[in-house]
Design goal:
This protein is an all-alpha fold. The chain has helices at residues 17-25, 35-51.
Length: 66
């Protein structure tokens, strides 16, 4: 079992200024309401990559009941 130290681990996410504003202060952009959704998606994608590395996405064939 791998133990993660979530208190000290960091991630980096590249956001546009509008995305950062939408996440940090809840600013709504009427012209493009998907900005905050896209920003949250970027953050969640970075978290997924950190918490579940690509090596865990592989399937061990010996565990399949074929």
């Amino acid at each position: 079992m791998v133990k993660l130290s979530l208190a000290t681990d960091t991630i980096s996410v590249e956001l546009t200024i509008k995305e950062a504003l939408a996440l940090s202060s809840g600013v709504k952009f009427a012209a493009d309401p998907s900005i905050s959704k896209d920003a949250r998606r970027k953050v969640l994608r970075s978290l997924d990559q950190k918490l579940f590395p690509a090596t865990s996405n592989t399937i061990d064939y010996h565990t399949l009941e074929v």
